[in-house]
Write a structure and sequence with these properties.
The complex is a heterodimer of chains A (259) and B (258). Chain A is α/β, with parallel strands linked by helices and 259 residues long. Chain A has 2 domains: 109 residues, ATPase, nucleotide binding domain (Nucleotidyltransferase, domain 5, 2-Layer Sandwich); 145 residues, Nucleotidyltransferase, domain 5 (2-Layer Sandwich). Helix content of chain A is 37%, strand content 22%. In chain A, the strands form 2 sheets. A 5-stranded mixed beta sheet of chain A has the order 3-2-1-4-5. In chain A, strands 8-7-6-9-10 form a 5-stranded mixed beta sheet, with helices on both faces. In chain A, strand 7 and strand 8 form a beta hairpin. In chain A, helix 3 packs parallel to helix 5 and helix 3 runs antiparallel to helix 6. The longest helix of chain A is centred in the last third of the chain and has 23 residues. Chain A is globular. Chain A starts with a strand and ends in an 8-residue tail after the last helix. In chain B, helix 3 runs antiparallel to helix 6, helix 4 crosses helix 6 and helix 6 packs across helix 7. With 258 residues, chain B is an alpha/beta fold. Chain B is 42% helix and 21% strand. Chain B has a 5-stranded mixed beta sheet. Classes of the chains: A alpha/beta (259), B alpha/beta (258). Chains A and B meet through helix 5 of A and helix 3 and helix 5 of B.
């Protein structure tokens, strides 16, 4: 049976179409102001790829912060369960998961069966979420996808940017710019700051290898390498790290397996 | 002999020149993106010209604020709370609880005879500061001043649930999308700031009268929201932005006497 997982995040909506144990199609679309429309657009896109219609889907599971607004979903499941399921299916050795999206950050611990033993989630404060990196990129006049590699460049001067609050961090950046500090050095300082927060969160749930990093932040090489260095391990990252929640949602569809 | 107080805030630098307990002149210069040393010099020159006092006559300069340590000509530093308490005592003698809301500051100070007794400030989160208000104003496409006036025309009570100013931006966009009125959204934003300020005031212990200083005290919507939240009148001086610099100049005057 064809099942569908939809993950409606704050910035992007992800859909995954599965049959048996195979991913048929996936897509990522920006979340618009209307989350129902965003979900329809994402599911429409994966169905279009496979030349299927909504009627072909046997079961749909919705997750993410907009999960309550998917009219065609059969069930909603929390992001925590979905991310654990998606990451564990992709990397069975994974015991610790870091998922950082546009507006939240989760650290999850699971056992060899993918069962969740502990998790922490921050969705109250923008510091320590993808939003921090977005605002840092904006303040420095850089594209979001360029700041990962740029933050890896050698530093002339070690600079400190606050990690507690995005607004204060922006203030710190302005102060450093007034003092004519180099953009790359400021960026490195800001990346160090968010990594400090990530590691703090991970240490609170307890890190056991393997560690899987997912969500938009997994695409920032500067963050990934720094986290690896601080924890002294290699992180597992899926080819498309942003779809782990939607994948997990599809995997948790109750009637996925035939019979 | 005159004394000078310099308050280097996040967004602007304020300078006050005093003589014999009388305010001779003041200046407020925006910091912009330039080197702070230049802003500080410019503000100093402006105030000395206004006061028609030769620069070498100035007896003592005390600096305060976020960038106070950068004032190389200063003879000493004073804390923001000390300056706030001192300046408020001169301008508003009955005030015993002072709320200072600036660009990056949200601070409550309980005072006694111009001295801080108890201080609570936001160190870790920008909610309740001018910067977070500015972000909301930008989302609404209004100036801070217009946003304040509009909030007074609110008819429907709605609430912004996110404390985080960055997440509140998304919430405001969603409210606009759902066709809530700008007046009502503006009011909700000010109420959020007032709640935050109230929580700080409760921590220092509210003793009447309550006064508000700092840049946000110029905003009609902020004052109204704060009065509604506290359920009492809030005193505001004529020039709420220069209270810190005035306090620094008064502290400088005290030093020259001793």
């Amino acid at each position: 049976m064809v099942v569908c997982g939809v993950d409606i995040g704050s910035l992007s909506t992800k859909a995954v179409l599965m049959e048996n144990d195979e991913i048929l199609a996936w897509c990522i679309v920006p979340t618009g102001p209307d989350s129902v429309e965003s979900a329809e657009r994402a599911v429409g896109a994966v169905l279009g790829e496979e030349n299927l219609a909504l009627g072909h889907i046997g079961y749909t599971v919705a997750t993410g912060y907009g999960r309550a607004n998917v009219p065609f979903a059969d069930k909603t499941i929390s992001e925590i369960s979905c991310h654990a399921a998606g990451s564990h299916w992709t990397f069975p050795e994974v015991r610790t998961i870091l998922d950082m999206g546009g507006q939240d950050c989760k650290a999850i611990r699971c056992d060899e069966n993918g069962r969740i033993s502990n998790f922490i989630m921050n969705d109250k404060c923008a510091a320590g979420t993808g939003r921090y990196l977005e605002r840092v990129a904006d303040s420095l006049g850089l594209a979001l996808d360029s700041i990962g590699p740029l933050s890896m460049a050698a530093v002339d001067e070690v600079l400190s940017v606050g990690s507690n609050c995005v607004v204060f961090a922006e203030g710190d950046i302005i102060r450093l710019q007034r003092a004519s500090k180099k953009t790359n050095d400021i960026l490195a300082g800001a990346t160090d700051a968010i990594v400090e927060r990530i590691v703090e969160l991970l240490e609170r749930v307890g890190v056991e290898p393997d560690l899987c990093i997912s969500g938009g932040v997994a695409k920032n090489i500067g963050v990934v390498r720094r986290v690896e260095q601080k924890l002294g391990l290699r992180a597992r990252i899926a080819k498309e790290p942003q779809i782990m929640g939607a994948l997990g949602a599809a995997l948790l569809a109750p009637k996925r397996q035939p019979g | 002999m005159p004394t000078v107080g310099i308050d280097v805030g996040f967004e602007s630098t304020k300078v006050v020149i005093l003589k014999g307990g009388m305010l001779l002149a003041h200046a407020i210069v925006p910091n912009g993106r330039q080197d702070l040393d230049r802003v500080i010099n410019k503000a100093l020159e402006e105030v000395i010209a206004k006061a028609e006092t030769p620069a070498d006559c100035v007896d003592c300069i005390i600096a305060t604020g976020d960038g106070g340590a950068q004032v190389t000509v200063a003879h000493g530093q004073a804390s923001e709370a000390q300056c706030c308490a001192r300046g408020s005592a001169m301008l508003m003698p009955p005030a015993h609880t002072i709320l200072d809301m600036g660009a990056e500051t949200c601070m409550a100070v309980r005072t006694c005879r111009g001295m801080p007794l108890n201080i609570v400030r936001n160190d870790r989160c920008a909610s309740g500061t001018g910067r977070s208000l500015k972000m909301a104003a930008k989302m609404l496409g209004k100036s801070l001043e217009d946003m304040g006036v509009l909030s007074l025309l609110s008819r429907e009570e709605i609430s912004i649930n996110n404390t985080c100013a960055v997440f509140a931006e998304s919430e405001i966009i969603s409210k606009i999308h759902h066709q809530y009125r700008v007046e009502d959204i503006a009011k909700a934003v000010f109420r959020g700031l007032a709640r935050r300020a109230h929580s700080l005031i409760v921590k220092v212990g509210l003793e009447k009268d309550v006064a508000m200083v700092g840049g946000l005290a110029n905003n009609a919507g902020m004052i109204r929201a704060l009065q509604d939240e506290l359920g009492c009148q809030v005193l505001v001086p004529d020039q709420p932005m220069i209270v810190g610099a005035l306090g620094a100049a008064l502290i400088a005057e005290g030093k020259t006497r001793s």
